[in-house]
Amino acid sequence: LVIDFGGGTFDVSVIETKKDGDISQSGSNQRPYGAKSIQVGGFYINRKLTEQLLLDNARDQKIKSRIRRILDRYKNRRNIDPDELEEIHPDHMVFLRNVQLLEYYVEDTKKDLCKKMPHWSLDKSLPKEISVSVKVPENPFKENSNWVEIPVFAEYLRGVFEKEIWKNRIISCITTCLSRSKSDLKGQPINVVLLSGGSANIRWLKPLIERDLSQETGGARIVELKEDYQEIVAKGL
Fold it and tell me: Which of 11, 71, 166, 198 maximizes the CB count within 10 A of its CB?
């Protein structure tokens, strides 16, 4: 099972190899099985973390409710077509610009938190001193809103990753791939799971697979690749 979790997409497929690990360039096992790709990567993690920070730090309940409505309205598009500009409420444009700016800040916050992470266990508590500050607008609908610095804790990042990224998006992508590949595998088990890509460096992915997909993967050995695995992804997808 090859998983490539990069900056823009999450790609997964099942690859059948020869005994020495090479992919045959001819014959039945050169074709990947169950390949699936979704638009979930590093940018999407930034987006969900940004959205959660905006909601959790909105001091006024009316602002919080409005944030929810606008996020839902523009959930699949952050960049607005110039032809639509006249139709969009000015407050919405201010909000979207503030969201994009916060997403930019959150990228560094996410990276710095990952560098400080003492462990990648799902069950062990993370020290409260493990945090990175980020500036968040007090009122994201205001052009010149005051931006306040708040700490983002390691536990917070883990919670967002597990719920918004793993449970809501990634796990179903993997199970769909495995389901699609069953007939081609003809009863053969998955014996290795390869994890690659920059976002796989958020290393909760491995314990989440072990916890929630052990039955589907048959307890296969999980290998975290330190380098980009572009060649195998190119052959597989």
Answer: 11
